[in-house]
Specification:
globular; mainly beta; 78 residues; 1 helix; five-stranded antiparallel sheet
């Protein structure tokens, strides 16, 4: 997947991540702007992806290689 970064800085409230750990398992995180990230469950991640107003999605390269799809998405309230 080709990713072309935006030249525009994105102002967001919350960032969500789905990343693979060294053992190959998916880990899900939420980070409010200006705070540390916290680990969340898969269901919470999926609910946020389906119900939040997403303003940007960023695919992430896997450090482990192989066919792994990781991503970050950014949300903002109205």
């Amino acid at each position: 997947m080709l990713f072309v970064p935006s030249p525009i800085n994105v102002s967001y409230e919350t960032m969500f991540q789905a990343i693979v750990n060294r053992s190959g398992r998916m880990q899900y995180y939420r980070q409010n702007s200006g705070q540390s990230r916290i680990r969340i469950g898969r269901g919470d991640f999926i609910e946020a992806y389906n119900k939040q107003d997403i303003i940007a999605i960023k695919p992430l390269q896997s450090e482990l290689g192989g066919p792994v799809f990781q991503l970050e998405f950014y949300t903002r309230s109205h």
